[in-house]
Amino acid sequence: MQSAPKVVIVGAGIIGTTLAHDFASRGARVTVLDKNEVAQGATSGSFAWITNQTKFRNADRLGEEGARHYFNLHRLSHLRWRYLQDAIDGLPIRWSGCFQSAEPGTEQAEELAAELDRRLRWGSPTHRVTAEEAREIEPGFEPGDENFIFYTPDEGMMSPVQLTSKMLEAAIARGAHYSPHDAYESFRKTAGGYEVQSASGKREADILIFAGGIANPDLVEGTGLKAPLTHSTGSVVHLAPLPRLFDSVILGAHVHAIQRVDGRVVIAKHFSGSPVGDPSTPDPEELVRIAARVLPGLKDATVEKVTETRRVIPVDGLPVVSRLASLPGVLSITTNAGISLAAGLSQLITTELLDSVSVNLLDPYRSQRFEGEAGVGVDSAAPE
């Protein structure tokens, strides 16, 4: 094992811990650094929907080809989550399907119709259902006037903080080391690799990965690596644990809701598809009342907390994989879709860095697109 590569990962969110597991599974000597503790950044405030959607936040320049590539990357990553769920006992993911609904004749219904058309053409098992069929599948759901409904049976959700902790535990079981409250400070290139400086001291590394989420732009500043973000916040209302009321992800016209594995319900206003520049935190009690219209079981729910988190949104909406020829073994990964994509991106990045290949599936998301080199998945076509 002394010849195994030494890997330092900066960030103990969902991306960083999944990378730690995958590198450790390949025999690498892994250390995960975090300035706080596991899953304390954007992961903790995520809605946590594992999605097949074809319209992506802030990706206004993404044409048909690029959107389909990104959709397929999501689908590939879903398969990897299922594999990891078999490999790691107790991974809190539930594949319980998703309903999206709107009132017929509204702008939201037109958007859903366009979304449904893309999903059908691109191979998702999404399909239209009536309100009666929706209630048969999900008895806790009462769509009311929102009877333009489609259902995607192979979508799901996770409990993100618990899952991230599980991924870290699985990595540690394979020999990884975890160093919380240990802020990354700098690195320098050496004859044999890299020397990484953190609050606790210096470490040697053959591979250094920045997976710091919203901190990535600051972490890579001055290195030549790129992690350009645009500012956006997202608010989620967390309800106190309840008996199991519903299984599916519910995305209504006015509220989105998930009941996680631990019984806690999280609700948000247009969290999953909202644009950059969302309004400030909604009134939580009012949002509960709105949610209870489509999920009557929430009528007497108690608000436990509200999280308002800065979201990780690259400037063009797509993941940013940044590497430099002058710094082999150093990589930055930044994405706003870590819930859906962490499993897939981690596998691709692990392969690229350990097997010294260029993984073609990552090409549309490389940072060279910000230097005037068009990515495969980005074009100038008008958004669909």
UniProtKB/TrEMBL annotation:
Keywords: Oxidoreductase
FAD dependent oxidoreductase domain segment(s): 6-350
A GO-annotated cellular component: cytoplasm
Superkingdom classification of source: Bacteria
One function term, GO molecular function aspect: potassium ion transmembrane transporter activity
Entry keyword Transferase: no
Keyword ATP-binding: no
Protein name per Swiss-Prot or TrEMBL: FAD dependent oxidoreductase
